[in-house]
Design brief:
two-stranded antiparallel sheet; alpha/beta; 51% helix
Length: 202
């Protein structure tokens, strides 16, 4: 069984999500909240497997709420729900550790696909958000992304350099820029941050 917690200030949205999710026999909805305050109070006593968070809540921004939830719900996989995405909020949610970015008007089939991916620990980004997320991460150059990909594949400086036709020293320069931009201290942390931000596939 997989337990789910829903956070949305519109009861009709929560009820619709529940009806759709509960069509799956392995799913149980163990709680819901209409505000950030209510969500934090309830999540202090339960540990759901999946958490769906609306971006626009009456007392908080969903991406800010994720920053509070995720450190205390380390086992949970979180999804951000919104009908009105913007690069700032999506990037903040990425950095907080959101695994999925879903539109409220997705059809049932895509919701089920997103659910399956989240259960497996994989990212799901609704097509409507892809360009917005790309804009959100535009502060990384294409070459930096290529270097990141090389490190995530376990390649050495020399191997990355050979693959990209650049010197190992240039690879190191790109790595140092990435460490500075991401404010991390190691290649392992850098790759983890890149996955969290959606720059790399998990």
């Amino acid at each position: 069984m997989y337990s789910i917690f829903l956070i949305d200030d519109h009861k009709i949205v929560r009820d619709g999500l529940k009806a759709m999710l509960l069509a799956r026999p392995e799913i149980q909805v163990i709680g819901e909240a209409a505000s950030a305050k209510e969500a934090l109070e309830k999540l202090a006593t339960i540990q759901p497997d999946l958490i769906f968070v609306d971006l626009k809540l009456p007392d908080a921004n969903g991406s800010q709420l994720l920053e509070q939830i995720i450190p205390t719900q380390s086992q949970a996989k979180c999804a951000l729900l919104t009908a009105d995405p913007n690069p700032t909020d999506l990037k903040r949610a990425q950095q907080a550790g959101a695994l999925a970015f879903l539109t409220k008007d997705m059809d049932t089939t895509e919701y089920m696909q997103a659910l399956d991916k989240m259960i497996e620990g994989k990212r799901h980004i609704s097509a409507a958000f892809s360009e917005v997320l790309l804009d959100a991460n535009s502060d990384y150059t294409p070459r930096e992304i290529e270097v990141l990909t090389g490190f995530s594949d376990g390649l050495s400086y020399k191997e990355i350099g050979a693959k990209l036709d650049i010197s190992p020293r240039t690879v190191e320069t790109h790595k140092n820029h990435l460490l500075e931009k991401m404010q991390v201290k190691s290649i392992v942390e850098m790759v983890r941050r890149a996955i969290r931000e959606g720059l790399l596939e998990a």
